[in-house]
Amino acid sequence: MSGFNTSGVLSVAPARMLVPILLILMWYLGRLHSQYEPIVTSKVSSRLEEARKMIPSVKLDWPIPLAKDPRAAFNSSKLALLIEARPLPHLPPLILHMMAVIPPDWRFLFIGSNESIIGVSRAYSIKHQQVIGKLDLVELPPPWSIASKEDVFRLLTDSRFYDEFLTDVEWILKYEHDSILCANSETSVDDGLGWDWTGAARMGDGHFSGYGGLSLRRVSVIKRVLSFQARFNDSEPEDEWFGKRLWVLPGAKVASRFDDAIAVEDVYMERPMGYHIREGGGSLDKSVWGDAARRKEIFEYCPELSMIMDMKLERQRCPDDDGNGDREMADVQVTTAVLGEGDDAKALPNDAESAVLPPQPPPLPQPWKVSVTTFGSPLRTGID
Length: 384
Ligand SMILES: *[C@@H]1O[C@H](CO)[C@@H](O)[C@H](O)[C@H]1NC(C)=O
Ligand SMILES: *[C@@H]1O[C@H](CO)[C@@H](O)[C@H](O)[C@H]1NC(C)=O
Ligand SMILES: *[C@@H]1O[C@H](CO)[C@@H](O)[C@H](O)[C@H]1NC(C)=O
Known about the structure:
Shape: elongated
Protein name: DUF5672 domain-containing protein
Pfam families: DUF5672
Transmembrane segments: 12-29
Bound molecules: 2-acetamido-2-deoxy-beta-D-glucopyranose
Distance between the termini: 117 Å
Low-confidence stretches: 1-10, 35-44, 334-358, 368-384
Radius of gyration: 32 Å
Region (Disordered): 341-384
Domain DUF5672: 135-276
């Protein structure tokens, strides 16, 4: 007790006093540093940071550089963006395929609903991409919504979205669940950076080849448009809306000829950078997809299309399918052949002729044929 009075303190040797003072000083400096740090990082963080799903706790078997923010390894001005609220099963492989095809310095952002984010983030390989800073999974905070197409159109035509969530981004490669880049393409996405906007051409529009299912956009040009134009709610889709304004925007370098397009939608182009199959093939355009030989060529060039398209096996075709899914003509002719047994066949010999000749169904698939022939009666096969 007596050590705390004035005489006691003075009696301690100066060297012994120095030690606690130094300790206190170190502790104070340490505290000061730890107080500064959160302030610094919170300044750096954006709205994107808030919405960003926490990096999962994944143990990687290979070392990653101990950089403070792994995202610094990528070019923050280039972003591949996918917005999808539905938990579609092919989203993880689609995202990973796009990562492999797009040059390695691009970053990826997936904006989803709680459900689609859970679906995507389950994959180990996706978690790895989050850990190395390549991919962010984001659920936008209210009032933002991506529940409907109209919500997404509003999002993409709102400059606050670009200011708050895409702060450093200059180029956006926007892709959707039904669009894909082809690994066999001789050109890279970086070759398109000279455009302010390019995408897919559409029949009947010779002015704008920037339809948006798979498109490359420049944020500075988007902001220029949004600085003096606002889209009416529940009006046209965002790509058409931008298209009309970009086409007349002075100095904007916008893809306008069919050849400028990077993606094929319903205007055929040989070996494009990628394809946008609207709704996964629900309404395919005949000029691109109507011909079996051309279709074969497309699938040989871009086999990964089978990831985003509804497909069935060749052997699931009807036996009288003409290879294009058409069998109506055959049906009609078979009907006339049956009806034509009476007077009509004699009245129109040519028709009757053609009714007899045409398509004999090709041999039925093997297993069925075998099981039918076991009846031992050729009449029961129903083939002839
Ligand atoms: C990011 O990419 C753009 C376009 O390729 C390039 O001009 C820029 O220098 C890159 N930034 C960094 C930090 O590498
Ligand atoms: C997702 O959010 C909605 C409402 O925002 C909620 O009703 C639903 O249960 C959530 N789903 C999951 C899987 O958390
Ligand atoms: C358009 O919709 C947004 C909500 O998405 C709303 O905030 C805004 O007021 C609407 N604009 C008009 C003109 O109704």
